[in-house]
Design goal:
The complex is a heterodimer of chains A (about 475) and B (about 500). In chain A, about 65% of the residues lie in helices and about 0% in strands. Chain A is an all-alpha fold and about 475 residues long. In chain A, strands 1-2 form a two-stranded antiparallel ribbon. In chain A, a hairpin with a 2-residue loop joins strand 1 and strand 2. With about 500 residues, chain B is of the alpha/beta class. Chain B has three domains: about 120 residues, Rossmann fold, CATH 3.40.50.720; about 160 residues, 3-Layer(aba) Sandwich (Rossmann fold); about 100 residues, 2-Layer Sandwich (Alpha-Beta Plaits), CATH 3.30.70. Chain B contains 16 helices and 24 strands. A six-stranded parallel β-sheet of chain B has the order 3-2-1-4-5-6, sandwiched between helices. Chain B has a six-stranded parallel β-sheet with strand order 14-13-12-17-18-19, sandwiched between helices. About 5% of the residues of chain B have low confidence. Classes of the chains: A mainly alpha (about 475), B alpha/beta (about 500).
Chain lengths: ~475, ~500
């Protein structure tokens, strides 16, 4: 039996710390007197109290976190935050627990799938709160905690690794983990500010600019309007959002290197980014041609505009919409959902499979082909000129198989609760890849799905955000038998 | 401070351990991914896989803005080239290299700016040899530490039941000493807990008492309070590696030395270099050089496990006797008169072999047993119980390195009790009025709770820290810090305030 005191201590401290997150919506509610003040104040007090109750009995525990504890801490924290985040939604909007947890999980995992409609008329504090949830989840609540809480200086790496995305997790930007986390958050906040200013300059109100900047840089996809980005109907705003979604789907380490060396060399030499750009161009081209050939839009330029926006929005797993994708003809809607599986670069705010895995898996495939021709050749697996350890390749294959198994299993289960296969496949894909939009009954929003599906999809979103391993390892009996 | 450590061996890992707890940005470079992964899991550091002296690896480790490079790889040559690369390409301010080969060390002109730019040389084997030699020279001592270029020494001894220390208050101790001899108890460890010495503190059995005194008087102090009588005459060294060999060379003039070395070829090499030492086979590298110096005065025996090999060694040496055996062999030890040995030193590379053979030697009657132990956990396990002194090469090297790294004016840092406590020597800079130290009487200095001032070295003079002594500029102050967390506070105390305008 493992001692859980250090885990309890960290989770308690994190909850107390994250209760501060309720301050901005509380301020909005209070200043605008929109009727949600009490709910937010209660939520904040409740979360802080639960955190304190967990932390207090074990505050003097000095045992360090072990490698295996990291998974439990991360999953417990995300689960607790998803539950805590549901509290004000339930209190203010008077929705069911399943709906509130789904909405909150969708926010914190930057999925952007919503069960709500009539967003435009909701209390302003709730509109802000949903966007803020996404922003906090975008880079990761653990990275935030590691940056700020000094108690995580030792052992912080274990939980940092369990949260951060991509197959190669040991790369640090700076020798000390807290400094790395701070650098990441500085870049994240900087990008958010620049994006908000750009959107504001392009004609959004200050409130819209910031809330949409939150969900753009987090590649999340919530909007404060039912019509999403379509509400603005502005090519300028769409192109700005395309640009910032692309920036946010790059590996943040690249931004760090580029800033520190004051040169764009880091971007140009990165094989993952190059593949990502090529894939975006190919997908945009394909969607444009399909839209144009189906005569969905009147002009070629209009086709190009909508194709480009949605290709980037879906590939980066953001899920913004400026048109009704689920009403597009033929296989286009399903194609759009499937490309979200690609995801952005590792170490970004995107969900999905991550381009670097796509790159490495295809490289391994090519390597086998080469071996067929030259049976005795030695072909190391390289990424950007550096040979990767065999464990990395193995871990990727493990990820591929688990990813497929999870999708197939979840689809099978969900199809038992939903009417048609298109709905089932699309919601599972959308949730696992943290995309947001889906098809069929969930085309407009996810409100019409059964309660069971919503719970399952909340789990799937967490699974996708924490890249499967971190969650699944807790489901293995050996984990608990230490 | 931004520090790059090359080599994740025992000393490299130990350094990373000590330094990462002191607000430093550490990057460790090694070629072994497994070792790096283990280190990364334990410590908040960055690890870089690659060849230590290559510019590309160094860049990845962040050499461009590193302030300190510590080259601790196994290879002297790699360490030297790494310092050269750091100097020529990146202009790294401070470069420290571990150099083991005595041959390189014999030519200090090699390490100048124009040739191989190494700012500080660290030679663990030399440090350990010095350390063990001092321990042998002071029979009752558990630890002997130099301060102010050897002008003052800190010596630890254990209070034994029959000894003069037990049951006495500290203030009554000076009465025992011959007149003119001034010593001070700097600290007491009781069951591994530090006790701040006060005038009426009473010493109990098994306390570890640290005396601080001028070097020429320490012998008198030890003769008065030390547990063992008379200087050592016969020493048995297990392990003929660099340390064992160097030690034997230094000791042989006064002592009767035997060395046990397991590796026949090495034993042979040692035997070739010595005449009259006794070399008993069973160890490593350290014995070779040592023995060469020994044989002029000592009688050499070599113990070798492989008979054919032993025969060949015998053909190759003149006056030495070649025996076949192992340092953990009871019969062998008995035959070589272990019960008459004043000192038994186990100096092989193998912690377990050292510990076992030392325990055996102790049980068989060796008076004082000194054991080389690298793993900190083992030190705790055996010291004070079955083995008199455990010498940790890692601790000794780290202490030397820490002195280089600490900010301010520390000239010497000795790590004690596995790094929990430190004895440090700091230069008091500044003028009276500006400094919190200079111009004040010792009694008036506000020290952290578990820190004491032991002595002051002014020029060649060693002054014991009585309350009314006033500290003058450029005095070397010797402090004993029982709780390492207070080091930062001590650093601040000695910092010269930057209000010169």
């Amino acid at each position: 039996m493992r001692a859980y005191a250090p885990v309890q201590r960290v989770v308690g401290a994190l909850l107390m710390f994250l209760s501060i997150g309720f301050v901005p919506p509380l301020a909005f509610a209070w200043l605008n007197a929109d009727g949600a003040t009490g709910s937010f104040a209660f939520s904040m007090a409740a979360v802080a109290a639960i955190g304190a109750a967990m932390y207090w009995p074990v505050r003097d525990n000095r045992r360090e976190l072990r490698v295996a504890d990291g998974f439990l801490v991360v999953v417990a924290c995300w689960g607790a935050v998803a539950m805590a985040g549901a509290l004000p939604l339930m209190l203010v909007l008077d929705i069911s627990l399943a709906d509130a947890v789904f909405e909150s999980t969708s926010g914190i995992t930057t999925t952007g799938a919503t069960v709500l409609s009539g967003l435009d008329d909701m209390p302003i504090s709730i509109r802000w709160y949903r966007q803020q949830l996404q922003w906090m989840g975008g880079l990761g609540i653990i990275v935030l905690a590691v940056a700020i809480l000094p108690m995580l200086r030792i052992g912080g790496m274990e939980i940092y690794k369990a949260e951060v995305t991509g197959p190669v997790k040991e790369n640090r930007l700076t020798p000390r983990i807290a400094e790395t986390a701070k650098a990441l958050w500085a870049i994240y906040i900087g990008l958010t500010l620049v994006c908000a200013l750009a959107l504001w300059a392009a004609g959004m109100s200050i409130f819209d600019a910031f809330t949409h900047s939150f969900s753009t840089i987090a590649t999340a996809g919530f909007s404060t309007y039912d019509a999403s980005i379509g509400y603005f109907d502005s090519a300028l705003i769409e192109s700005l959002i395309i640009f910032f979604m692309f920036i946010a789907s790059m590996n943040f380490a690249l931004h760090f290197l580029a800033l520190r060396r004051a040169s764009a060399q880091a971007y140009l030499n990165n094989p993952e980014l190059r593949l990502f750009a090529v894939l975006l161009i190919v997908i945009s081209g394909l969607v444009t041609v399909l839209l144009w050939s189906h005569d969905v839009y009147d002009t070629f330029w209009e086709s190009l505009r909508y194709a480009l926006f949605h290709a980037v929005s879906y590939t980066t797993t953001t899920g913004f919409a400026s048109a009704d994708v689920y009403l597009w003809p033929g296989t286009l809607p399903l194609l759009m959902i499937l490309i979200s599986g690609l995801g952005g670069c590792a170490g970004s705010t995107t969900g999905g499979f991550k381009i670097v895995r796509v790159y490495l898996v295809s490289k391994q495939g090519l390597r086998e082909l080469k071996r067929l021709i030259h049976p005795r050749s030695v072909v190391p697996l390289k990424l950007g000129g550096r040979t990767l350890a065999p464990e990395v390749a193995n871990a990727i294959w493990g990820f591929v198989s688990l990813y497929i198994v999870c999708i197939v299993l979840l689809t099978l289960v969900v199809s038992g609760f939903e009417q048609d296969l298109v709905t089932s496949v699309s919601v599972v894909f959308s949730a696992m890849n943290n995309l947001g939009p889906a098809l069929g009954e969930a085309g407009l929003n996810w409100g019409g799905l059964t309660q069971t599906t919503k719970w399952l999809m909340s789990f799937a979103m967490l699974l996708g955000r924490l890249e499967i391993f971190t969650v699944l390892v807790l489901l293995t009996p050996t984990y608990w038998k230490h | 401070m931004r520090i790059i450590i090359l080599g994740a061996g025992q000393v490299g890992s130990g350094m990373a351990h000590s330094l990462s707890r002191e607000e430093n940005d550490i990057s460790v470079v090694d070629t072994d991914p497994q070792r790096l992964r283990e280190l990364q899991e334990k410590l908040d550091i960055r690890t870089v896989l690659g060849h230590a002296s290559r510019p590309e690896t160094l860049i990845r480790a962040g050499i461009e803005d590193a302030e300190l490079l510590i080259a601790l790889t196994n290879s002297d040559e790699t360490n030297m080239i790494a310092c050269q690369v750091a100097y020529s390409l990146f202009n790294t301010p401070t470069k420290v290299a571990r150099i083991r080969a005595a041959d390189y060390l014999a030519h200090p002109e090699l390490f100048t700016r124009e040739n191989t730019p190494v700012d500080f040389l660290i030679s663990p084997e030399k440090l350990v040899t010095d350390h063990v030699q001092r321990l042998i020279e002071y029979p009752g001592a558990l630890q002997v530490l130099d301060f102010a270029d050897g002008r003052a020494q800190l010596v630890a001894t254990r209070a034994v039941r029959e000894g003069k220390l037990v049951g006495r208050a500290l203030k009554s101790l000076p009465d025992e000493l011959p007149s003119g001899v001034d010593a001070r108890v700097a600290a007491i460890f009781r069951r591994d807990e530090a006790i701040i010495p006060e005038g009426d503190t009473v010493i109990e059995v098994d306390d570890m008492v640290f005396f601080l005194a001028p070097t020429q008087e320490i012998r008198e102090v030890m003769a008065t309070f030390g547990s063992a009588a008379g200087p050592a005459r016969r020493a048995l060294l297990a392990g003929g590696g660099n340390i064992g060999a160097a030690l034997a060379r230094r000791l042989e003039r006064n002592l009767h030395v035997k060395i046990i070395e397991r590796d026949p070829r090495r034993a042979e090499r040692i035997a070739e270099g010595v005449d009259t030492s006794i070399v008993l086979v069973g160890g490593g590298n350290i014995g070779a050089a040592l023995a060469r110096r020994l044989e002029r005065n000592l009688h050499v025996k070599i113990i070798e496990r492989d008979p054919r090999r032993a025969e060949r060694i015998a053909e190759g040496v003149d006056t030495s006797i070649v025996l076949v055996g192992d340092c953990a062999n009871e019969d062998l030890l008995r035959e070589e008169g272990i019960d008459e040995m004043d000192v038994y030193c186990a100096l092989t590379n193998d912690d377990e072999a050292n510990i076992l053979s030392s325990m055996l030697a102790k049980r068989m009657g060796a008076h004082k047993v000194i054991t080389l132990i690298n793993r900190a956990a083992y030190v705790d396990l055996v010291e004070s119980d079955r083995i008199d002194v455990a010498v940790s090469p890692q601790q000794i090297t780290i202490g030397a390195l820490l002195a280089l790294i600490r900010k301010g004016h520390m000239v010497r840092v000795h790590s004690l009790r596995q790094g929990a406590a430190e004895a440090i020597e700091v230069v008091a800079h500044g003028d009276p009025g500006r400094s919190k130290i200079v111009g004040r009487e010792i009694g008036a200095i506000k020290l952290p709770a578990s820190t004491t001032i032991g002595a002051i070295v002014r020029g060649d003079e060693v002054l014991m820290a009585h309350h009314n002594v006033t500290i003058e500029p450029e005095d070397h102050v010797i402090l004993f810090v029982a709780d390492k967390r207070e080091i930062a506070e001590v650093e601040r105390l000695f910092a010269v305030e930057a209000v010169f305008v």
